[in-house]
Amino acid sequence: MAVEATPDTAEGAAPAANGSHDHGRLAPVFPRRLRDHWLEGHAAEVAELALDLGRSLGLSSFELLELELAARLHDVGKRAVPESILSKPGPLSAAEWSLMRRHPEWGSGMLVDVPGLEAVAEAVHAHHERWDGSGYPLGLRGERIPLASRIVAVCDAFSAMTTDRPYRAGRPEIEAFDEVRRCAGSQFDPAIVDAFVARGERAAA
Ligand SMILES: [Fe+2]
Fold first, then answer.
1. How much is the pTM?
2. In this structure, is residue 12 part of a structural domain?
3. Is residue 14 in a domain?
4. How many whole angstroms from 52 Cα to the centroid of ligand 1?
């Protein structure tokens, strides 16, 4: 089983507005506010984790800058996903999933024409690729996946697992580390997992 990195299902949908007659007025507004709050907080945490990890991997200042941008913008393509899908409280249909799975491509498309952000666009495009080639959108394998994408994938998953959401508490960090370790060599680059776990152990010491 793979670690589900980000709220690709709409599990984070807002609760009903207490069944009051205000529900109709609040419903179109509250889910978007909640979603933006969650995504922005999540993006900032992923960027912080990715920068830490990038430093421990010896990335240059310029590579760290590109990594931070890729981490902050990795899910920007979800802005193009219909609100009805992002806020859907139940499981997504196959058609809805196929739209959701286009967010890396859409995010990359938003960035690729910005001069200087070509590598960031490429990293955003590949953030759901998996080390064993079973990811999307291209099924890239191993080191053909940009390094920034491989780093973001680990940090994204860890952040998603440990963060409280409206419908469930975040998992303890120790469990999230175990899950990341378990997925080394399948979902994640094992060298990056080693560095991530070592960084966690140093922080806990
Ligand atoms: Fe994503």
1. 0.82
2. no
3. no
4. 20
What's the pLDDT band for 38 if we cut at 50, 70, 90?
low
Taking only Cα atoms into account, the Rg of the chain, rounded to an integer number of angstroms, comes to 17
Distance from the alpha carbon of residue 77 to the mean position of ligand 1, in angstroms? 8
How many A from CA of 28 to the centre of ligand 1? 23
Say which CATH number the domain at 88 has: 1.10.3210.10
| 136 Rama class: left (phi>0) / alpha (psi -120 to 50) / beta | beta
Which of 198, 189, 204 lies closest to 53, judged by CA? 198
- pLDDT tens-digit series, residues 74-92: 999 998 898 888 878 788 9
d(CA 104, CA 135): 11
Per-position DSSP letters for 45-71, written without gaps between them: HHHHHHHHHHHHTT--HHHHHHHHHHH
Is 107 inside any structural domain? yes
Say if residue 29's pLDDT is above 50: no
Q: What is the extent of the structural domain holding 141?
A: 23-204
Render pLDDT for 154-189 as a digit per residue (tens, 0 to 9): 999 999 999 877 677 889 999 999 999 999 999 999
Q: What is the pLDDT of residue 2?
A: 55
Judge whether 182 lies within some domain: yes
- Count of domains for the chain: 1
* pLDDT of amino acid 3: 58
